[in-house]
Fold:
Amino acid sequence: MAKQPAPLPPLAPVQEIDRLLTASEYYHACIGHHPATLQRPREVVSVIEGELAEGAQIDWQAAIDQVAAANPGCRLRLHGKRRQARWRSDGHAPGLRLLPDQQWDSHSSLGADFIYAIPLSLEEGRGCELIIAGRDRLQIIFRAAHAVMDGTGVAHFMSELFRAIRGEPLLGTNAAYTDVELMRQVKSVRSPLRHFTPPTVTGQPQGTLQGGLWRRFTVPGPLPHLVARFAHAAAEYVHRTSNEVVRIAIPINLKRHVPELLATTNFTSMLYLDIAPGETLEDVKTNLQGRLERNVETNYPEILELIRFLPFPWLDKIVSLNEKNYTRPKTMETAVLSVGGPFKRSLLSGGGFRAETIFGLPQTENTFLAAVGFQGKYEILVGMSHVFAGGGRFEDFLGFLEKRLQP
Structure:
C-alpha cells in the first residue's frame, strides 16, 4: 500500500526559505549549463507597457526592496549540488536596470536582446531583475530564472510591486510547501501518457539556421474558452496536412487547488491534451474540462526524483538543443500553450503609471503559444525555432491563428 503523504502545513506568513529543489526546479535550473547547449538559461519574462504621467516619479528600488522583504522567493540562492541542491533565501533582492533611452517596439523578438544582456545567476543569488525601459512611455520588464519563478509567481511579484508603489499593504508569501508536495496531496485520476511522436506544427525542418523567433499580435476580448479555442486552432492548422494526433502541452496553475496560496515560487504542472483529426471545438472543450475535473495535472511520477542524481551539465545535454539535434528535436508535444489572465489594469498600475498592455515572452526552442491580456484584449505570442519557421511557414501559421482567434 502506498505511503500517504504528510498533511500540508497551514497557510501562514513565510519569511525564509530553506529546502531542497523540487524536480521541476532542478530541470529548469539545468538549462544552459552544458558547454554544447544552444539554449540560453530558462527564464520567465513578463512585460507591462503603459504611460507615466507627466512629472510622476517612481522609486522602483524602494518598491523592489519592500517586495523582496515580504516574499523570500525573490531572494533564492542555490546551495549544493545534485541531491543536496537546495534553496536558501539568503540571496539578493531583484536587480534593477533603468534604461531611459532604450527603444523597442515589442511586437517581435527583433531588438529584444537587451533584456538578456546581464546573465542571472542562481549560485550568486541573483535569480531575477526588473528592467524599466523608456521615459514617459514605459516598458516594465521583469525576468526571472524559471527555476526561481513560474508565470504565476512573476504575476504575484508584479502585483506586489504595484501594491508597494501605491502604498498598500503587501500580501507576502504564505506557502511553506512546494509544488510536488501539493500534487501529492490532491486526489487525481491517473492518466498515463500514450507514447508516440507528435507531429510538428509546420512539418519537416528546413535549413540550418540556429535559434528562433517570436511575434505578437492583439485580439479583442472577451474570449471565452480561450484555452480550448487556441488548442483547437493549432490542431486544425496541423490537420490540414496531417492525419496524426496533435498533442498540446498546457501549463496548469496548481494554485487553483488552494486559491488562497500566495508565493512567487513554481506552482505549475503540465497537462497534455491530445486532439485527433475531425475533433470539434466542443470535443476539445469537453476533453479539457474532463481532464481538469479529474485533476490529471497533479499526477506526479515519482521517477522524476531521479533527475536530481544528475549534474546540471549532464541533464542539460540530455534535454536541450545542441549542434546535433536542433534540426530534429524530439519533443513530447506539438506545441506548448500558456494562457494567463485576464488581469485588471488597476492592479498593475500606480504612482502615475497606467498599464495598457501585458504579455509574456515565449520560448523559441519549440513551438510555444501564449495568450496574456488585460480585460478587453489579449496579446497573442507565437515562438518557433528557425528550422520550422522558414519558407513563409511562420507567417502562414500566424495568419491562420489571427483569423481563428477573433471573437
